[in-house]
Amino acid sequence: MRVLITGAGGQLGRALQATAPGTVEISAIDVDDVDLTDAAMLTARLAVEAPEIIINAAAYTAVDRAEEEEDLALAINSDAVAIMVEAMEQSGGKLVHVSTDFVFDGTSSQAYQPDDARAPISAYGRTKAAGEDHLRDQDILVRTAWVYAAGGANFVRTMIRLMKERDELGVVADQIGAPTWATGLATTIWGLIEKGAAGTFHHSDAGEISWYDFAVAIAEEAQQIGLIERIPTIKPITTSDYPTPATRPAFSVLDSSTTRTVLGDTHTPWRENLRAMLKEEKALG
Hints:
alpha/beta, Rossmann fold, 6-stranded parallel β-sheet, two-stranded parallel ribbon, 39% helix, oxidoreductase, dTDP-4-dehydrorhamnose reductase
């Protein structure tokens, strides 16, 4: 099976390559290989690669900057997806597209189901929702949230850096969600492909926490394995204390039960995956 991975240099792209089944023939492209805003270039590259499956792990993810660059975000998060879908339509292939909790408005009091109504409240969320709209019934849509991986640009590594530099941190405590270890997400994606799945699925680690809760756990686990020497004071703050150009969903927990049923696997707790990631981070030096 020939699989093309876009966003190959990102956290998920690297995890997909590391966890790929041995039976898969992988091609991987990143921003240096193809400009996703160049329709002709992307179309030509897809024709050359001729994949049976595309896993689209590429995205414009600068949430705050998207408020001023919505056209650019739309070109990458939606227009490029339409081109991938068209290529798969012509070849009889399938697109696996990765989306986000930001397509929801965060007003729910319970975890979002795959078929819940979308109501994005940011430019980033709008462009990702637009990308979802191009998918066909036979494609796979996987929504996720709070993705992190060893060596990547993410909340976990930012916290570790700040904990080494500062005696006190303020972290938002009124935004609730669930982290996602990129390795677990990649494994789920390969599993859905192997099962011949189609439709919309959710994946994040088990549990629901605030960014503040996550920061406290990062500090505890990082100190235990020697990534940081001491735990600084971590204070809970509100979203209004830390204003950003883009509005974040206040509650964006994704219900992954359908995904777990299809794959027949367990829902790994977020802290267990955090521990595994931090061990990898330490090994990187």
